[in-house]
Amino acid sequence: MNDPSIEQWRALLLFRQRHGRTWKSALSLHWMNGTDENDPLGAALRMVRNQFGPSWLHALRPKAFAEAEQRIALLDRLPVMCATYHGETGDPIILKRGESGHWRMPGDMTVEQFNAAFLPTPGQIAAMEAGSVLGWDMPSADPANDDAAGRLKCKS
C-alpha cells in the first residue's frame, strides 16, 4: 500500500486541524506513548503508524494533504453505496465509494430497494460506476461532470 486510505487521511486531516502547527510532533508523541488510542480517530491513526511509520509522517508534505482533501471532497459528493447493473452481465451489483470493483447484490433485494436507502442520483450512480472501474481520480468519477440523466457532459 503506497497511500493511506480515505479514512486514514480523514483522521490525519482532523488531527492536524485540532493540533495546529505542531501536529506532527503531537502525533509522534501520541504514537510513542500509546495515547493515540484515546483519540476519537485513534484506530485510523494507529493504522497509519503501523502501515507507514514515523519516517513517512516526517516526510509528509502539504501537497499530499491538498490532494487528499480534493479526493475527500469528491467522494463526499457521492453516497456511501449504490446499486446498479453490471455493464457486461446485467447482474445487479453494489458499488462502494472509494473502492474498486463491486459486490454482488443479495438475492432477496432489488437495485431499487437498495438505492432507496442511499438515494443516489443518476449522476452519482454513473460517477460511482466510472470510479469503481477506472479509478476515483478520473473526471468521470465526479458527479459534477454528469448531466441529470447520468451521462458524462461533453466539454466544448
Main sheet properties: 3 strands, antiparallel
On the 0 to 100 scale, the average pLDDT is 91
Strands, total number: 3
Radius of gyration: 19 Å
Instruction: Report the principal-axis shape.
Output: elongated
**Could you give the distance between the termini?**
38 Å
Structural class: mainly alpha
Order of helices and strands: HHHHEEEHH
Taking pLDDT < 50 over at least 5 consecutive residues as the criterion, the unreliable ranges are none
Number of domains: 2
Query: Strand arrangement, largest sheet?
Result: 1-2-3
Could you explain the architecture of this structure?
With 156 residues, this protein is mainly alpha-helical. It folds into two domains: 6-74, no CATH class; 79-145, no CATH class. Helix content is 50%, strand content 8%. The chain has six helices and three strands; from the N terminus they run ααααβββαα. It has helices at 6-19, 23-33, 42-59, 62-75, 111-118, 122-134, and strands at 81-85, 92-96, 103-104. The chain has a three-stranded antiparallel beta sheet. Helix 1 packs across helix 4 (62-75). The protein is elongated, with a radius of gyration of 19 Å. The chain starts with 5 loop residues before the first helix and ends in a 22-residue tail after the last helix.
